[in-house]
What does this fold into?
Amino acid sequence: MKTLVTGGSGYFGEVVTRHLRERGDAVRVFDLVGNDDRPEDVELVLGDIRDASAVRRALAGVEIVHHDVAQVPLAKNREEFWSVNVDGTRILLEEAVRAGVRKVILVSSSAIYGVPRANPVTLTTEPEPREAYGRAKLEGERLAERFVERGLSVSVIRPRTILGHGRLGIFQILFEWVRRNRPVYLLGSGQNRFQFVHADDLARACVLADQRSESETFLCGTDRFGTMRELLVGLVRHAGSKSSVRSLPFSATVTAMKVTSRLGLSPLGDYHSLMYGREMFFDIGPTCERLGWSPRHGNADMIAESYDYYVANREAILARRGASHHRSPVKLGVLKLLERLP
It folds into this structure.
């Protein structure tokens, strides 16, 4: 069985590729770049998801597509949020219909919910995105609905924030501060409950979903999570660090985050200022029941695993160039001011 992973050189795309190979699939990766550690038996097609001819080449002979290409919040490019996450998704779905693809797995985002009015979020919760990334991901889902009406089987996976070995992005800043015994910061009290999902747990759900003929939507997160304060205190303890966990005033800090982000002074995007200090968690019961799936990792062990990976591979990570946002180190910008506080 030939399976295509779009964005297969990115962090999560690599994880999905590994799970598909373990299942025995012949895997092809479609991405702008390749990775040095790509297995020899994984085919690579280079191209842009917005280029219909390149997508058509990548889909030749493919039965299943895992669509993991995304312009993520760290990129902060609003035009590319739309052109990649919406226009690119439309092109992929059009070419999938033309190629006779049997199944598409579309990885979406919890950002489509904005700040939920109540938790847990369920499949009946109305999406209300409040920033550009979330709006683009929701429009990608709506495109998928139209292609389902045309007979294409598309299942949508909505994950909570992803962690696991190798996951970097803004977590690299946190890990570096903990490693160096610097203070780490919460927005407000840190009593907001916040759910993550391990990349391997999410990939298992995706691989299970691609065997179902129905077009469905699944919410994926861990079932073992607590508050953001508990998460950071636990990480500091795990690391044997002397870092203190400090609270910043919620409203003033959110305003500062938005301003510095839009001025290009901070690596953080609108979604980070919107959600870091707020509460969100999914009801994963229907996903567990329909897929025969359950998460193997909780918040505490997945952030500890991510931290340990960073420390063990820090020199190579800091020297990395040209990788995806979630596999790369982050420039601190104005966050250096927090790093220097006593």
